[in-house]
Amino acid sequence: MNQDHFNIKQITAQESYSVRHPVLRPGKPISTCVFDGDDLATTIHLGLYQAETLIGICSFFKNAHPDLSVQNQYQLRGMAVLNVFQGQGLGNMILAFGEKLMNQKNTETIWCNAREIALPFYKKCGYETFGQAFDIPSIGPHYAMYKTL
Ligand SMILES: CC(C)(COP(=O)(O)OP(=O)(O)OC[C@H]1O[C@@H](n2cnc3c(N)ncnc32)[C@H](O)[C@@H]1OP(=O)(O)O)[C@@H](O)C(=O)NCCC(=O)NCCS
After folding, report:
1. What is the overall mean pLDDT for the chain?
2. Range of 93's domain?
3. What is the CATH number of the domain that holds 52?
4. Which residues belong to any copy of the N-acetyltransferase domain (predicted)?
């Protein structure tokens, strides 16, 4: 994958919906794409573009997980790549960019609630599971995962 063909930049929550909706909330109302805290000043949304087209997204929320004791932690949410672009290293590319940015902001740990189907992706990116699997209604089984930066 030639990284020169892609551009990663900060975007608004609303801009992320063109990927959040088809990939993470397909067939559901667009209102389901709105996450708590999307518009907080501490929240960071990233977008990966090919030319003018947004094809990958991830967001970082200043949320502490009750089972993690570290001070500076952020929650990764809305991790998604448009279906036709998946499996080409783009998810890894935007997540690595985000981790570097969060590290520069003194974040020590990133955690997420990972869909079971996405576990292999997060493991490849250096995340580990913790705690018990749990169900998110209408989405399915999830695992909490974390990575120390
Ligand atoms: C999960 C997702 C963001 C990953 O993005 P991607 O661009 O497809 O992933 P990448 O191509 O960057 O994969 C990075 C690494 O993870 C591995 N990987 C990704 N998906 C995998 C899978 N389902 N099984 C095994 N390995 C996988 C890749 O092989 C790659 O490893 P490599 O570098 O050794 O080749 C993307 O597939 C997606 O949007 N899925 C649907 C939405 C979703 O489930 N989001 C997560 C919500 S918690």
Report:
1. 95
2. 3-148
3. 3.40.630.30
4. 6-149
